[in-house]
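From: lab user (bench 3)
To: helpdesk
Subject: output format question, protein + 6-O-phosphono-alpha-D-glucopyranose

Hello, I'm new to running complex predictions and I'm not sure whether the block I got back is the full result or only part of it. Here's what I submitted:
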Amino acid sequence: MRIILRLIASLIVVSTVVVSLFAAVQARHEERRLVEELDRRAIVLAESLQESVEPVLASGDQERLDQLVERFGYRPRLSGIAVYGPSGEAIALTSSLPESFRILPVLEAAHGELAQAGLISAERTWWHVQRLPLRQGEAILGTLVLFHDASYIREHWASVWRENFLRLLLLVLPISLSTLLIVQWTLLRPLTRLVDWLRGVKRGEALLPRTVRRGDVFGPLTREVTDIAKSLIAARAAAQEEAKLRSKAEARWTADRLSTHAHTTLQQRKLVIVANREPYMHVRDGKQIRCVVPASGLVTALEPVLRACGGTWIAHGAGDADRETVDQLDRIVVPPDEPAYTLRRVWLSKEEEAGYYYGFSNEGLWPLCHIAHTRPVFRSDDWAQYQRVNAKFADAVLQEVKGVEQPFVLVQDYHFALLPHLIKQARPDAKVALFWHIPWTNPEAFGICPWAQELLQGMLGSDVLGFHIQFHCNNFLETAERLLEARIDWEQFSIDRAGHTTWVKPFPISVATNGLAETAKQTRTVGRTKDALLSELGLSGVRWLTLGVDRIDYTKGILERFRAVERCLELHPELQRQFAFVELGAPSRTLLTPYHNLEAELSAEAERINRRFQARGWKPIVFLKKNHTHEDIEAFYRAADCCLVTSLHDGMNLVAKEFVAARHDERGVLILSRFAGASRELHDALLVNPYDVDQVAEAIHHAISMSPAEQQARMVRLRQMVQEHNVYRWAASLLNELARIRPEERPASSSSSPLLEAE
Ligand code: G6P
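Helpdesk reply: Thanks, we reran it on our side. This is the complete output you should expect:
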């Protein structure tokens, strides 16, 4: 408030000084103008009088002189005339003039020698005096003086000041008021809000991130402070978690612990991760460039690991503004608000992307590895592009690890089956792990791939080959045993081929669990409430909110889920209007026909079911098809009574773990497919066969009618599981496994990208 007062006071002072200066100049100017006007009038009158008075005075006719003085003495504004003799005594004086004017020297003594013309103040009023000598020939007979009332000049002068003062008031009052409001609205209020928010952060309250309003002068400051506060909140959560762990003498994995561990394990060696999908993608949005986080379980899991360990993430630069945001070496440091590691982008031509990504990876390997009854398509052109792109990424890896001894390279997923072998050929000292994020099917199913052996050989270039669950490891070992000449060690779970050993192990991937130890008591509700979300969706009277979060993919069992919702309403008609199912579906791989068709099929199915049951203000299925933000998804996770993860086949499925991690209130029920890797760990979910629509329908009914006590008991155990088996532990075990491998003594191949050269 003091600052506003100071601001207003200085405004008043400055305005007063400026207005006063103008008023003074104006008043002076006006006064001068009026005096000059009076001067002119007085001199004309005086000269005409002079002609009449001089002969009368010379004749000594006192009576005529008196008459003359009386007669002329009453004109507009003229107060009187006086004729003084040479000694200065009045010979004739208009009777209305004060007695003190009788003697000219007395008058002059009081007011200084009278000028030819000018103003004097006498008898409490202002007079204009005009003086002329009266002559007879050369001799001076006396002085003629005309007295005009000049008080109106002073009044006018005062009125000029009055007007200007009024003007000053009219200027200063609205300016002060608007200054007060502007300062209050644009400066003080946002500042107070920011300070309150920061105080909340300081007190340890989990608060909504500050949103920057348009035109907020503190926008840049707010953004910076928000970032600092976020780090503070994260650091505090980590410290609390560490402290809790210490007090329980347990050794749970946290970001900090992984960071220290990675530092010790890697020493000076570099960590490089290769994944097709980049963690941050720059896309055009009109004239602006937006940075988005793609919907991908792989990104969800690996991003916190790189944040903790540092290193380089090599990925396909798929965003349409990606090229504009990298440096000359195609690198950019990320995350944008808190740089922790390097993202190296690899550029692919349209043909390469079509053959390698859409074609071989997603039309071939994806349906091959998932038992979802979509036939894989294998084309030799796609295979050629797959080989070419793997070689291209191998080159990028070799550039990144140049000069670094025994670098750690973590290759991710089915896009890069050939990469481990390519890297190892050029750099036998590199420690290479391949983590396969999707299921591995049985040898018969895999054997249909025309290039099955080449894929296996490529994968067996790695030192460590990871799957989510032991079952997939077993499938792989069987496949290698059946399709390759290799020695399989079923005791050690390793494969020896051409003098190289690959250890095949399960590493169940997970999510980051920062702050997971907090309970409802410690965490204020973040995000929108269930009622707020339902009303945003236009649903009224709904008691239970059930949820699905997926990339729109035929392996996720979304269609079956919709049918289970329908069946649930058939079996339990009392639930109509009582519950709603919200599907947050992120469009994915839409250039491929099965994905494109699936979107349309899902919309049509949701519509059909809604038409069947919907009533005023309610429909059973809300299908929200877009890339949802993390904040939105988090709000739904926290508000849902039940989350359905009903994949037909899934490597792990991190939505299940994310839902659990979000439930600080220890409520909510997870319905989970038996065919998702996560079902091996999350025993307290309601496990279902997603193909059994009746079973899923009953699971929904069971979930929403489950007692709060049972919900809590299950959720507490689920959270404990996710907390203990988080992604930091996953990364640490992968690094440990790699660190354990002894370097091989195999000469490096002279070619850095053998496949490229072979073509
Ligand atoms: C699965 C795969 C990931 C992939 C993600 C998203 O989780 O295992 O490798 O990144 O789906 O798919 P997309 O094709 O959009 O990268």
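A quick orientation on your result: DSSP finds 23 helices and 23 strands in the chain. Let us know if anything else is unclear.
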